[in-house]
Design a protein that fits this description.
Helix content: under 10%
Strand order of the largest sheet: 3-4-5-2-1-6
Structural class: mainly beta
Number of domains: 2
Number of strands: 13
Number of helices: 3
CATH superfamily of the largest domain: RimM
Shape: elongated
CATH topology of the largest domain: Elongation Factor Tu (Ef-tu), domain 3
Largest sheet: 6 strands, antiparallel
Length: 171
Amino acid sequence: MKHFHIGKILGTHGFKGDVVLSHALSSTKVLKHLKVVFTEDKKDSFMPWFVEAVRSKNDQELYLKIEGMDAKEKAKLLNRKEIWITESDFNLMSEKNTAINLLNYTILQNKKVLGTIVEIIEQPNQILAKIFIDDKEVYIPLHEETLINIHHQKKQVEVELPEGLLEIYLD
């Protein structure tokens, strides 16, 4: 089963075991029917956490009530954990025109494959795509100056990166 990274637990909220999830989806509305989230305990080994309730905090954050987490101390187990959902849930929840839909797309520069997008990081002024080149993390900026084309059918993103950007990560 394939999983998609959607965000991170920022911390606990209150005394009844609620946690705050910061997410990269387009709005909190798409997550209101969330029933299960996952943490990655080991590479490609996911632990399910069943969701009892979801409340909106703001556009990028939610309060989650997790089954069995009835006290702040128990909920602290999830602090700073990356959160994943199944591919089927992701496809139901993500909107077509959001950056997170580029997960698992291949990044190309001059028709050469650079890597596969494993994470999308949305910052106030830019979007970064995380890929791996020779087992090294590389962050590719996705904005109008670097983005050439997105081929949704081929699941490819064409970029033209500033000279020297890749060398920063690879040297």
